[in-house]
Amino acid sequence: MKFISWNVNGIRACLKKGFLDYFHQEEPDFFCIQETKCQTGQVEIDLPGYHQFWNDAEKKGYSGTAIFTKHEPLSVSYGVGDADTQDEGRIITLEYENFYLVNVYTPNSKRDLARLEYRLLWEDELRAYLKELDGKKPVIYCGDLNVAHQSIDLKNPKANIGNSGFTEEERGRMTRLLNSGFVDSFRSVYPEATDRYTWWSYMNKVRERNIGWRIDYFIISKRLEEFIKKADIHHAIAGSDHCPVLLEMNIDQMVEPRTE
User: Fold this and answer.
1) Which of 21, 68, 110, 115 has most Cβ atoms within 10 angstroms of its Cβ?
2) Domain count of the chain?
3) Of 76, 75, 84, 78, the residue nearest 65 (C-alpha)
4) The pTM is what?
5) Residue of 56, 144, 153, 216 with catalytic role
6) Does the annotation flag 51 for ligand binding?
7) 256 is in an annotated binding site
8) Is there a domain that residue 128 lies in?
9) Is residue 144 annotated as part of the catalytic site, yes or no?
């Protein structure tokens, strides 16, 4: 099965910049998007054969997530933990027979780190939620996670130490999650790859010079690692300041869910 995740930075704008061409080219089983920046009724996307699940932020033109999938889930849930976070439309969870798919748009700590404390509480709540799900069946967790975990995940690590998305605290929360039984699928396949980024500033020629950050991920339960078929970053796809990331899994071979 093919999974794609993309922060589209406004789905209405991205639709005008080739979103559907890319979508139909890839024909994924699951397409997760973040930062939809719209409310129900503001956009309609005709995707025959796909179920659509949207989680809109209450604030217009802000945040929001969606999942388009060929596979009808057993259950769907929106948000987790803090009620204020749920108002921002940041989480969708789909349950299937052998796994959960969790699509997330992680809060940004802000340039002045004004939202760092809030962000860390979010990370703690989300980790507890993912561990709870993982206790039932494996988890595929994806989205714009707004953190470059390692120094090789951004072009200029020394100049960005302590900046939003590269603070010791944010990176530490990612490490803690991975140490809780999860795997960064891209790093599983490419443990030492450099210059592979998923986000670039809109500043002049930054993307052309590949001065970027890898902040979009597929994080999976450790016991799914052996079923990874492919992990990739589609850096050539424009339409947003982020690019899509891909994960292909041998789902038919995946372990059975836990029954305890």
Assistant:
1) 68
2) 1
3) 78
4) 0.95
5) 144
6) no
7) no
8) yes
9) yes
